Amino acid sequence: MHTVPWLHIVAKQGALPVDLLLPVTGRTYVARLDGREMRDTDDVFQQFYDGLRLPDYFGWNWNALSDCLRDLKWLSADHCVLIIEAADEALPDDPSDQRLLFNTLLRAGQRWSYTQRPEGIELSRLVVVMSCDAPSAVPSLQGRLQSRLEEMASS
To answer: Exposure of 49 by Cβ count < 10 A (0-12 exposed, 13-18 middle, 19+ buried)?
Structure first.
């Protein structure tokens, strides 16, 4: 998979260097969501609402989730690390909504992607870590996300 620096896909027990996730300074909010609890779209929105403490004006639909993730002004932190455990198990019976979830995360990540500054690279305001319970599920999730990235790039 073509790697985007703000997106990490790991096996359940996978480790990532801290410098890929956390800035040197500033306030960082870490949200842990569970893909096993995302059986339908209502569950997805509930996981994000609870885990990220979305604002009360959150509209409980894909556009509202996208708006909140691309804005982040409502979050009282400089950076956000979003960890989705068992991400490959989210929306198992609804491939269309699973694509919407992945597209929403990828667009938000692109919005907050790393920037090059004269003094070096600045970490993204949003870092997404997606884990899979089974290491064998990692390549499949990487492939689905790569397809989403390619589709987004061509549109």
So the answer is: middle
Q: Residues 118-122: contacts with CB within 8 Å, 24+ apart? A: 122/23
Residue 34 structure tokens: 């569970």
Each residue's pLDDT tens digit, 71-85: 888 888 888 899 999
Q: Mean pLDDT throughout 60-78?
A: 92
Tokens coding 146:
């790569």
Beta pairing, strands 79-85 & 28-34: parallel
Q: At what angle do helices 62-71 and 41-52 cross, to 10 degrees?
A: 20
Q: Is the pLDDT of residue 113 over 80?
A: no
Tell the residue number behind the tokens 């870490």, with chain if given.
30
- Which of 76-80, 104-108, 123-127 tops mean pLDDT? 104-108
Question: pTM of the predicted model, to two decimals?
Answer: 0.86
Answer yes or no: are the C-beta atoms of 81 and 22 closer than 8 Å.
yes
